[in-house]
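ok so i was messing around last nite and threw this chain in just to see what happens. nothing serious, just curious
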Amino acid sequence: MINRRKTKQISVGNVKIGGDAPISVQSMCNTDTRDIAKTLDQIGELASAGCEIARLAVLNKDAAEAIKDIAAKSPIPLVADIHFDYRLALKCIENGINALRINPGNIGRKEHTVKVVQEAKAHNIPIRIGINAGSLEKEFAELDLPLSEKMIKSALRHIEILEDLNFYDIKLSLKSSDVPTTIEAYQKVSKIIDYPLHLGVTEAGTLKSGLIKSSVGLGTLLSQGIGDTIRVSLTENPVEEVEAGFGILKALNLRKKGINFISCPTCGRTQIDLIGLAKKVEEKFKNLDLPITIAVMGCPVNGPGEAKHADFGIAGAIGEGYIFKKGEIIARVKETDLINSLEKIIMETYG
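result:
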């Protein structure tokens, strides 16, 4: 049982973050925000995959104007990602954005920061301070300190700016492409502040390498009770980020969305296309939101017993297979009928 770190609770739209709220899964659209139709289509795809908050890049005035139509039609809360231009933040607030990702020390004169904070406070909009190891301010980048400590110093400076303006609806991220640096930064800052933390390993890579880095980095922190929201950053369709995020949370028993899928590694006893079968079963049931475990095992001799903790499963044989429930074989069917027969049994059980 993982004991989560207790943090201050904030709200991004109707999603609670921190406190006793579930760890939320986020992603970021890779569309041009000015293209309202494409952006809404992608938000819809993310929401269908389970994404709970989506971030949008707001690069210019036209993108900020597009937020009005996007926010009005979005099925999930939205965060505007803004760098340097305080006017874009003000326009996004006016147009219905649910949160800002902006570093208050980087948007010019103090009066600019004051204006953004005043409007955010008036509209109950939280601010995520996003520290990135690759873009630290010169004053911190040049310090003779470990990178994780430089990141924390930058974060604390930005937090201080907001707190001095009596603004406390804050979320923080401290991302690096280096996994140990990311882990160290979050571990250290979690002992200093009680604001909710958004976890991520930035620029993690493509699907395979990015999943490995994110699973190690986020998994380590989450297992220590650190983290209130997560994003698995991948050079891939952002829907993959959402599925990976829930996968990490499910592996740690922190969220229960969807089935728990398990399969055995292949070995010399396997007499069926186990790799192909496992992929087909996982794809078939990926959108089934039931609190069950489904197993795909390579042989009928050991498979059902080894996966007896699974609610349902398949064990392959030559040209056929066995369907089992809690380790007990309940059906023997042709290989071509395995998946459909398994689906029928599950649906009969759960209506």
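not much to say yet. The first helix runs from residue 36 to 49.
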